[in-house]
Amino acid sequence: MKIIDQMLAAQLQQRPELKAYEPEMRAFFSKYMSFETIRPDLAEAYAQKFSESELREVTKFYQSATGRKFASMMPQMMQAGMEIGQRRVTEHIPELQEAIQKKMEAK
Q1: Distance CA 38, CA 26 (A)
Q2: Which residues contact 4 (CB under 8 A, 6 or more apart)?
Q3: In what helix (H) or strand (E) does residue 3 lie, and over which residues does it extend?
Q4: How many whole angstroms separate alpha carbon 96 and alpha carbon 102?
């Protein structure tokens, strides 16, 4: 549920007017994006990309102390990655605006 919580928090931060609909959004995301719901699709995706022996190695890693820490930190790291990307885009938006403006003027 951490990923759903973080995803929902990010959306509500971007669009605060949706705060009144948070319970409905949470129910929707829980219904369609919970691990239990997507588990079969994830298993199929992993099976297509990794051999059985590779999956056994990955399983061994996640059973280690480092693997458990890695898994527990993943939602926070994904959030950090999204924030870094958003910050980078925001910092450089004038460059995009300039490129669009030049293209518009060339027409």
Answers
A1: 16
A2: 26, 29, 30, 33, 34
A3: helix 2-14
A4: 10
Per-residue burial over 55-74, b = 16 or more CB atoms within 10 Å of its CB, e = otherwise: eeeeeeeeeeeeeeeeeeee
User: Across the chain, what does the average pLDDT equal?
Assistant: 92
C-alpha R_g of the chain: 20
In angstroms, the Cα distances linking 51 to 38, 55, 62, 103 are 20, 6, 17, 48
CA 51/CA 56 separation, integer angstroms: 9
**pTM metric for this prediction:** 0.56
- Determine the Cα angle at 30 with ends 60 and 81, to 5°: 60
For 60-92, the pLDDT digits (tens) are: 999 999 999 999 999 889 889 989 999 999 999
Q: Cα–Cα distance between 16 and 29 in angstroms, integer?
A: 18
Alpha carbons 97 and 102: distance in angstroms, whole number: 9
